[in-house]
Amino acid sequence: MSLNFAGAAVSALLCLTALFSIVAAEDPYKFFEWNVTYGDIYPLGVRQKGILINGQFPGPDIHSVTNDNLIINVFNSLDEPFLISWNGIQQRRNSFEDGVYGTTCPIPPGRNFTYILQVKDQIGSFYYFPSLAFHKAAGGFGGIRILSRPRIPVPFPDPAGDYTVLIGDWYKSNHTSLRAHLDAGKKLPFPDGILINGRGPGGFSLNFEQGKTYRLRISNVGLQHSLNFRIQNHNLKLVEVEGTHTLQTTYSSLDVHVGQSYSVLVTADQPGQDYYIVASSRFTTPILTTTGTLHYTNSAGRVSGPPPGGPTIQVDWSLNQARSIRTNLTASGPRPNPQGSYHYGLINTTKTYVLENSAGQVNGKQRYGVNSVSFVPADTPLKLADYFKIGGVFRVGSISDRPTGGGLYLDTSVLGADYRTFVEFVFQNNEDIIQSWHLDGYSFFVVGLDGGQWTPNSRKEYNLRDAVSRCTIQVYPKSWTAIYVALDNVGMWNLRTEFWARQYLGQQLYLRVYTPSTSIRDEYPIPKNARLCGRAAGRRTRPL
């Protein structure tokens, strides 16, 4: 062997070693293949056309660990365009993958799209759902859990079991009928029932071994109503809310507003028998209720008697519970440093947005809006129009940052915001029903909730020390909720009601968090496999 060849071989070996070192240091990849189909389901005893993922209703859970890369290939076997969004997954620097129509082109029937997600610096309990065409009323949703990395301390022992519990109100009508009802400018009727993990009354069960403690990840994936969750004779110890470890407060029941996720610990510390699991509607007349069964493995008897009652229309009860949910400042989050090391209460806000929801008629049809604007989708996803600099699709500032007091009108509403600013949002609800708001791309600090009209003096009662950080928050009737947000994630982010008929009929907007920088440290370029539609059709993403 010549010296030159030997040197080249050694160099090649060193290069390969370096390459494998880089690969070994990269965060893990997990791959999923999903086929989305229609199928018959019978959750309330009548046949319905449901949306299944790999034949399952609800869809399969996603199990992941902080910083995992999730490669999810979704094949659309429906007869209409389809998208999945990932409630609570922040899509750091990558709103292209968010899976709502303002960011991502729909998957055509008979085609596929591969989502490339990273659960960067996140832990906790979330869910996914179909975001278009009122598909959420047919299923297509499932749980997401993000576990802490092995060396990051968790503020409670490993549970004996870890279960996803998806609760939500439900209609016997197919989603196409509900959608046609909304398209005709009508309000939806009252739901027909409540499901727990896709099952109606008496259909859901959990098995517990006496003396052991279990984790339940409860998400309200319904269309409208807040639900109260409880288990007969058992306490619920709250430990995590949408990615934040909380003070470990014990409750006899828990209000889970639409779109929200909670983790509780339940200890099987009662005599060996079966117990009711109950989910019932809040702030409604009549009250909807469904039950499941908690079965002890040494059970000596089935459930008996009436299910335990819970709160019904009491707002103060729910408000006081919401105020008691606080961050555990000494616990680690996705990183080893304590959650309390970020002192949000010492940061000055640079801007206040006041957003007021409203209902009304536009052109003789029912619509809903924010600051008098009822959102209508553009012909091109807003993020693609922004990336390719396509004019005429949307206008930043097309919605006011304060209520205008005017009547509802239609527009593609986009709020502008600057990257790396620290801002305040106030959600003002002057209607007589509860609201639930979600912001994609972020977690925010819930600094205040109260009745009446918000004023600058309301800041005197803000919690500036240990407010919970989450991504979905309720606003009680005739009340306000205030949040602080560090705008550290460039992109086009959907801010929407989780009351799905209102979202469908215009109660949403997009927050454009902007920087003139083109560095990948601030925002990733468009994915190579991105679908291009509308006025972006025919353009190029980037070289493979």
From TrEMBL:
Pfam families: Cu-oxidase (PF00394), Cu-oxidase_2 (PF07731), Cu-oxidase_3 (PF07732). Residues 36-149, 162-298, 379-516 form the Plastocyanin-like domain. Keywords: Glycoprotein, Signal. InterPro entries: Cu-oxidase-like_N, Cu-oxidase_2nd, Cu-oxidase_C, Cu-oxidase_fam, Cupredoxin, CuRO_1_AAO-like, CuRO_3_AO-like. Residues 1-25 form the signal peptide. The keyword Signal applies. Belongs to the multicopper oxidase family. This is L-ascorbate oxidase homolog. It comes from Prunus mume (Japanese apricot).
